[in-house]
Design a protein that fits this description.
This protein is an alpha/beta fold and 733 residues long. It is globular and about 90 Å long. A 12-stranded mixed beta sheet has the order 12-11-15-16-18-17-19-20-23-24-25-26, with helices on both faces. Strands 2-9-8-4-5 form a 5-stranded mixed beta sheet. Among the domains are: 81 residues, Immunoglobulins (Immunoglobulin-like), CATH 2.60.40.10; 216 residues, no CATH class; 118 residues, no CATH class.
Length: 733
């Protein structure tokens, strides 16, 4: 039979169709990123999952180039996972079988959401000690990280290995991975794996901060990857936070994340947590004492978690631990970036740095009035009543925290006041001085977050949200008969406010309304309506009381009140108070709550799942001894009739005495006309005229929402970064 050219062509087409059918790709149902949101990828790589209709081979491309070799079967049926690298800066596209996913890639040096890089910025990689940290379970070693390689303070990654000797309590360095010590201990993780107690410890640079992570991994085993994670990892991840704000600006950081309270056992080299199989990570810029900017801290934690996931795989859940500055280092990013943390265990809690600064600013105005303007006119008992605190020591300690809003060095004031706190790594020549260096860097909680608050175009300084217009200081003391109407009037006529340099002025301080609005929307003032509405929150008071040191109980209740206002109740929030709270009990209860929550794979709302998952032990209460726990709803105050408050009474703060809410979340109040009926005392006609003159625009109406008060805007962004300037500390050495 003769076959014509036309017939040959037909046969070829048919054959090609048959062959094509035999190697047909599976239908791709979904492409998604696992390590971060697709619009917030960093470092040029990302963990991707492709979900198919069946297990057939699928071609995956990045910007048209075949990247199929990066993928391996995932744990879920008919899925492929792989770390796709080689992303270009900016827009990218991953495609498979007609499905596409748009990605936006940012440099590993950042920023993504925090706005222009802070300037100046001191690099510290050459001084950073890889194993330095707090806690009895930490290895002390002087090994330096290494020199910075560019203006963004990036340094070469170092992978170290440590091991726990048999019978030992402190990790020791593995000098050579070719010679694993023979006395290495074994450990059994929470998921039942028994492995050698060897820790892979990475030190690298992410978002201009120094990133570190720790995880059980034997270096004689194959390198870890998302498709082959370390055998000793229990698939749980802990973010480690740092301390509080003073000094937290203009430098890369000199210490990794670690709790300031050893009983939290929350260090990157915690033998207990590592031995149980947890992965841990942190960054110097997650530590508020090195970066007092919650937006930057959240961005840094987001980028660090992305890197961890791309190295080891997706955790079942991620939790954050922190005390003091580590408390807001945990819950502020959790609120602003839902999904970053799946639960927080916080101690010595503050709602945010602003709560400390605002209450301190009110208190500092009062101490100035009491000691300078009206020295000797009020008794100590009257001063304490106006302040709201337990005693004078507590009041002064809280008032002196306004120093974190004061950029002027060596300002003379009351005992203990220490403005313009700097880390020693920042050279004197870079520091602000109103006379000698008026264009220098300003060491305040406002200027540290100037991208968010906005900048005064006349001065170049950050806009300030603090506002005390209409605030009636001492109102509660007046109504209780502790001070007279004349004393109340004198106080409110003369208390004054601050200018941009924190100098005392006679007029009340009017906060910038743009800065106020952005404080709410960005989460610099914790709102509670974002990620915190969905996750377990376990709040411990620890050893702190209301006598001194400014770690007062009202801060814990302020956070709880914000959660109640935002979500209708606080059913996902548990509070334990005590002298002290036993951390082992808290940790066990918190993790039981996390495990129960993770097991719920239903489609009901996450908040419902979280609340339903609470174990029986996850209830409010107080510890009267390490073994005696009283189950009791924790409430603010001293005279509530509860046994916990009889042991641990809680006191207030100046703006609460002025009629403000316990939540301390109204930055600038709405005003109403002065009305005699609003007071429990009677003013003489001349006194009432003075009262009206003292408040010409009216007094605070605390029943109304504050001016510009809104909920948090989750996943907010503050724009791209221009060229940044960096000062490298090594140039001085």
């Amino acid at each position: 039979m003769r076959v014509s050219g036309r017939n040959l062509g037909t046969i070829a087409v048919m054959a090609a169709a048959i062959i094509g059918a035999s190697v047909a790709q599976a239908a791709v149902l979904d492409i998604k990123t696992l390590s971060t949101r697709p619009d917030r990828v960093s470092g040029g790589d990302v963990l991707v999952q492709v979900t198919q209709s069946d297990a057939a081979a699928t071609k995956v491309t990045l910007n048209g180039a075949d990247v199929s070799k990066a993928f391996k079967p995932g744990t879920a049926p008919n899925t492929l996972i792989g770390v796709v690298d080689g992303l270009k800066l900016g827009a990218n596209t991953i495609a498979a079988s007609g499905k596409t996913l748009a990605l936006t890639n940012y440099p590993i040096s950042g920023p993504i959401i925090s706005g222009p890089h802070q300037t100046p910025f001191v690099c510290t990689t050459a001084n950073f000690k890889i194993f330095m940290g707090r806690g009895t379970m930490q290895l002390t070693d002087e090994t330096p990280f290494g020199p910075s390689l560019d203006k963004d303070c990036m340094a070469a990654t170092k992978i170290s290995y440590l091991y726990l000797p048999k019978g030992g309590k402190v990790l020791q360095p593995v000098k050579s991975v070719a010679e694993i010590p023979t006395d290495v201990a074994m450990t059994t993780t929470t998921t039942g794996a028994t492995v050698k107690f060897i820790v892979r410890y990475e030190t690298s640079t992410i978002n201009r901060g120094i990133f570190q992570s720790a995880i059980l991994h034997d270096p004689t085993e194959p390198a870890p990857s998302p498709s082959a994670p370390p055998k000793g990892w229990n698939k749980r991840l802990i973010a480690i936070q740092g301390a509080g704000c003073p000094g937290g600006w203009y430098h890369q950081g000199v210490a990794g994340g670690s709790s300031i309270q050893e009983t939290m056992d929350a260090s990157l080299l915690s033998v207990d947590r590592l031995g149980e199989g947890y992965g841990l990570y942190g960054n110097t810029l997650q530590n508020a004492s090195q970066s007092c900017n919650a937006v930057l801290a959240g961005e840094t934690a987001m980028m660090g978690k992305e890197h961890f996931v791309e190295t080891y795989g997706l955790p079942t859940y991620t939790v954050s631990l922190g005390c003091s500055g580590g408390s807001y280092g945990s819950h502020q990013p959790a609120d602003a970036i839902p999904g970053l943390y799946d639960g927080v265990l916080i101690s010595c809690t503050f709602p945010d740095p602003l709560a400390i600064a605002f209450s301190g600013s009110d208190g500092h105005l009062l101490t100035h009035y009491f000691t300078k303007t009206a020295a000797g006119k009020l008794t100590e008992a009257q001063q304490v009543a106006i302040s709201g605190y337990k005693g004078m020591k507590a009041f002064v300690d809280a008032a002196n925290q306004s120093q974190r809003t004061d950029p002027v060095p060596a300002r003379a004031d009351i005992e203990g006041y220490n403005p313009a706190v700097w880390n020693a790594v920042v050279p004197q020549a870079l520091r602000y001085d109103p006379v000698n260096n008026p264009r220098g860097a300003r060491p305040t909680v406002y200027d540290a977050a100037r991208n968010i608050y906005g900048v005064d175009p006349k001065t170049g300084f950050a806009q300030r949200p603090f506002d005390n217009v209409g605030v009636q200081y001492g109102l509660g003391a007046l109504n209780d008969g502790v001070i007279t109407p004349a004393q109340f009037l004198d106080l409110n006529e003369a208390v004054g406010g601050y200018d941009q340099d924190a100098n005392y002025v006679t007029n009340r301080a009017a906060g910038d309304q743009g800065a106020i609005s952005r404080a709410y929307k960005s989460g610099l003032q914790t709102g509670g309506n974002g990620g915190l509405a969905q996750i377990p929150i376990f709040d411990l008071t620890g050893n702190y009381n209301d006598d001194s040191g400014y770690h007062y109980q009202w801060f814990h209740f302020a956070l709880r009140e914000r959660l109640a206002q935002a979500n209708g109740n606080t059913d996902n929030h548990v509070m334990w108070r005590g002298k002290p709270v036993p951390f082992k009990n808290a940790w066990a209860t918190f993790i039981a709550w996390m495990e129960n929550t993770a097991k719920d794979t239903s489609n009901r709302p996450q908040r419902e799942k979280t609340i339903a998952a609470k174990p029986a032990e996850a209830v409010d209460g107080c510890w009267k001894s390490p073994t005696e726990f009283t189950r009791e709803k924790q409430v603010f105050g001293r005279d509530s009739g509860t046994s916990c408050n009889a042991m641990l009474p809680s006191y207030a703060f100046p703006r609460y005495v002025a009629g403000g809410p316990l939540a301390a979340n109204i930055i600038k109040c709405q005003l109403k006309p002065v009305a005699a009926a609003d007071y429990k005392v009677k003013f003489a006609p001349a006194e009432f005229a003075r009262l009206q003159k003292a408040f010409p625009g009216g007094v605070c109406d605390w029943s109304q929402r504050g001016v510009g008060q809104t909920g948090l805007v989750t996943h907010a962004s503050f724009g791209p970064a221009p060229e940044n300037l960096v000062y490298d500390i090594t140039r001085e050495e």
